Amino acid sequence: MDTQRLVLFFIFGFSMLMLWDAWEKEHRPKPMAQVTATATVPTPTAKPDAQSAAAPAAAAQRAPDGAVPGAATPAAKGETIVVHTDLVVAEIDTLGGTLKRIELLKHKDAKDATQNLVLLGPEHQYEAQSGLTGEGGPNHRTLWNVEPGGRTLGPGEETLEVRLTAQGKDGLAVTKLYRFKRNSYVIDVALEIRNSGTQTVAPYAYFQLTHNGQSSGDANTVAQTFGAQSFNGFAVYTEEKKFQKVQLTDVDKGKADYVKQASDGWLAYVQHYFVAGWLPPAKLAREYTLEKRADGIYAGRALIAAGSIAPGAVTTLVVPLYAGPQEQNRLAAVAPGFDLVVDYGWLTIIAWPLFWLLDHFHDLAGNWGVAIILLTVLIKAIFFPLSAASYKSMAKMKLITPRMTKIREMYGDDRQKMNQAMMDLYKTEKINPLGGCFPILVQIPVFIALYWVLLAAIELRHAPFIFWLKDLSALDPYYVLPILMTITMILQTRMNPVPPDPVQAKVMQFMPFIFSIFFFFFPAGLVLYWLVNNMLSIAQQWQIQRMFDRDKPAHAKR
Asked: Which domain holds residue 472?
């Protein structure tokens, strides 16, 4: 069996498995959602001192009756503050001081390439909320006052700040500061808490992301090709448990498994190509909570103790928010483990170096399509000895095919004698019938890893190649690459030895057409890889076959 045939057979089986899994998820009975009566964030029943407030164990001292309301009061209405930077357009609603909308200026919408992509926004009820727990607030239902200041990051300016103020109960006054930075998707969110009362207080602050749980347009078009669904849901990272993906279905059932209390890490909502995450500083105790609210919206938050604040004192909590693309050169610098939000599946250990090579080839060529071709050539060169061994084995099999046919005709009714005669033939000709299988098995993980790299890397999103190919992460609009891919598969099949069994021979004849159907639904970048790989394989196989035809053994000619 030749390399492409076995690899494609594996792809076919893998795709069928993913299709079945996708169908099951779509048609299995939906579990009854466990609705939370109110969206609650516990608050302290007692006023702990500074040391106990900073410890993760302080969460156990809180009673379940403190609450952060799940939605703004309908009668209230705030002002929308629009902020412009070199990378984003952000909208802050003074009702709640909430970051309501983030438009990414460097990325286009999946459904309408003339429009910028909106990451946070009303379509998915995707918001970044923050405030103090309890009805005393201020929280994301409080009407905040905005201070005068610039709203556009001008030339030569590196940062832009927006300040909002609100008064809570018990003498608490809070200033919420949004700090935007040039060439950065990180927004520093600070809560300056002043105790204007007469008694020491120990408030808790929350930093929350909400989402309706629906997949983005990118996930619907490409990420779910043949059931290969990219992750859509919350993720929690801590040094203790590392990266933990939390399925929304587990949140529905109340069975979400993740670290609840830690002194490090981050909380994020991950979708195909993009991510938003709260990044509390290290060594700051926090509690992570994921839930589905009564209105059906998912909420994930980090709860942080502000410590004891004496009368007249001020304390400040600064928690950065990253809201932007999953660009690996940015993510690694944001926070430890944050680059793990790029979903490369279970072969991440192979996918990372593949992307590293692909990225370096892009720096060299300036075109992602050319980078894919260069990566294909490199992978082919690395596996050249293994591929050569496989093709030599096939060439030997092709030479003895007539003799195998004769043996089959002689012992057609006696399979035991036929198999023994076949084994004797293999022994005489020094042929291992499975000699081409090991090289194939080695290459299969590389193919799957590269599949996920080309599927998950946002760098290929809307990346053009040549002429009609304007997006390597999408399907070829005119199916030129899949058609060429089909042609190369047919050529390879004709170069391979014909199976002695007529039924098997017929199956192999139609196999290229069957498998080519899948490539009509794969991203253009992946089809480009396989097209170049096939062309190189044909050249290599032709050269090896030519050598064998020229130097074929005399006993093989009988």
From this structure: 3-18+351-398+436-550
SS3 track for 511-526: HHHHHHHHHCCCCHHH
Closest CA to 523 of 221, 275, 227, 110: 221
Task: Please return the burial class of 469, using the count of CB atoms within 10 Å of its CB with bins 0-12, 13-18 and 19+.
Answer: buried
385 in the same domain as 277? no
Domain shared by 177 and 230, yes or no = yes
Q: Are residues 239 and 362 in the same domain?
A: no
As a whole number, the mean pLDDT across the chain is 80
d(CA 533, CA 525): 12
pTM of the model: 0.78
Instruction: Report whether the peptide linkage leading into residue 138 is cis, meaning its omega lies within 30 degrees of zero.
Output: yes
* pLDDT tens digits, one per residue of 411-464: 767 778 787 887 887 777 777 666 556 666 777 888 788 888 888 889 888 889
Separation of alpha carbons 382 and 375, rounded Å: 11
Domain boundary among 276, 309, 343: 343
Asked whether residue 26 is domain-assigned, the answer is no
> Cα–Cα–Cα angle for 487, 489, 493, nearest 5°?
120
> Of the given ranges (61-70, 93-102, 419-428, 529-538), which has the lowest mean pLDDT?
61-70
Please count the structural domains in the chain: 2
* Angle (CA) 74 119 282, round 5°: 95
Q: Which residues of 269-278 are buried (b: 16+ CB within 10 A; e: fewer)?
A: bbbbbbbbbb
Is residue 338 located within the same domain as residue 263?
A: yes
* pLDDT > 90 in the chain, percent: 47
124 and 248 assigned to the same domain: yes
The least confident of 195-199, 236-240, 277-281, 397-401 is 397-401
